[in-house]
Amino acid sequence: MSETYVLGDWGTSRLRLYRMHDGDISARLNGPGTGALETGADRVLDERLDVWLAEGPVADVTLCGMAGAPGALVEAGYAPCPANAEDWLASRTRTTVAGVPVAVMPGLSCRSEAGVPEVMRGEETQVFGAIAIHPELAKGKHLLVLPGTHSKWVVLVDGSVAHFSTHPTGELFALLAGQSTLTGPDAPGDGTFDDGFERGLERCEEKLTGALFEARAARMLYGRSKDWSRGYLSGLLIGSETAAQITSGTTITVIGDTALSALYQRALASRDCTVRVLDGDAAVVAGLKLARGKTT
């Protein structure tokens, strides 16, 4: 018998809800991220569920991401690595909103060989979703990168997340491009974002703090545009991240937003890497469907 249920990815910057019917997306709703809530998370979810409940019953809701962070909807901890899909699914937390059962998936945690702590929330759903879409990822060793505010580099071994590391590249770019003096005013100038990105890749193995200042100096001396400067910062930061994580010729899977994944693909291609790009939305929905199938 067919039923309607809801899957959701609740990040710091936005909430994305998918109403599912017969396994397919029948409607979508967005909302504020957990970092921009003006009311309680339960109230935000309640308001959106009411829209769909007015059209018919909803069997249940499965959420991932920051919905499980302290102070959000309900605290869902971290499954320690190494963790496969079953380990992750076993650590879920349950609550009820608008009379509808809600399962909130945990994040993952690990420590590096040096004892450095690492955590993720939401990206693990994309990882397990990618495995569900591409079962070959469950065999052998694979390197994945999930670009974003806090980019995650994940090592998969036979379908388990063995360990991962984080680069807050997206957050650094937002701060430097939006709140520092490096990109300068919105004055006319020469050069595109792509031009600047290529220049950033050229300098990405230099000392980062020294290389950053070309974003400003090139505007002053060479009349570069603000777009060029933003592209330069992006290329420099993404290039530095990839240089720290891989060697030339590595095979890597990129999971994420189309536009951002394309920038990582360019940076990786410059290092002669073999790259496969998977859509982040498709991966998260597949991961949530996997989770939902095990929670009902």
Automatic annotation (TrEMBL):
Entry coiled-coil feature ranges: none
One Pfam entry name: DGOK
UniProt-recorded Gene Ontology molecular function terms: 2-dehydro-3-deoxygalactonokinase activity
InterPro entries hit by this protein: DGOK (IPR007729), DGOK_C (IPR042257), DGOK_N (IPR042258)
GO biological process, one term: D-galactonate catabolic process
Protein's name according to its UniProt entry: 2-dehydro-3-deoxygalactonokinase
